[in-house]
Amino acid sequence: MININDKHSQIIVDIIKEYARKQSLFILAYGTGCGSIEIPPTMTSKYDAERYGIRGAATPRQADVLLITGYLATKTLKRVIRAYEQMQSPKYVIGFGSCTINGGMYWDSYNTINVLDKYLPVDVYINGCMPRPEAVLAGFDKLKELIQAGKAEGWKHYQENLDWYRENQKKVIVNWQMPDYNW
Ligand code: SF4
Q1: Which residue's CA is the closest to the ligand 1 atom numbered 2?
Q2: In the chain, where does DSSP find H-type helix?
Q3: Domains and CATH numbers, the chain
Q4: Which end of the chain is more exposed for a tag (fewer CB within 10 A), N or C?
Q5: Helix (H/G/I), strand (E/B), else coil: 106
């Protein structure tokens, strides 16, 4: 019998919980950039991501993974942050495409951000311009590995370093006027 106050039992419970979590990933796919065109083939019959437990969520509150599909306009950033903050923890962020890593071809654009990690805690990056569905699925595999190992902890990093993230976010977003982060 499992006694959850016992240290070893707690470890077993955590392994089971992480296993269940990684097998059921509901994604909020915010189609921010051109890379989002690779999401339909990833989700539909040819690649059929749902057989790996990956499927779309209707609202941020039902989602586990925020998928940022490429470049992110400074105007859109505010909505993306709001969506992320409405998601329940534990929650994960995947940066999809070169634009999320270093700005890609928009690296010196006046109206896109070029390092997503400065504004949201990215757990996994998928490089490429644009990444094919195989790369997207490999990215999800990596996220699953991190979840199982208890290392997909960007959401904790966000809570612990909220001041740093806010400072960066407010440098870009002119009219902040956002509700406080509701933990
Ligand atoms: S990485 Fe390439 S495909 Fe993706 S948003 Fe940027 S320019 Fe578009």
Answers
A1: 129
A2: 7-22, 39-43, 74-86, 98-102, 133-148, 154-160, 162-172
A3: 23-172 (3.40.50.12280)
A4: N
A5: helix
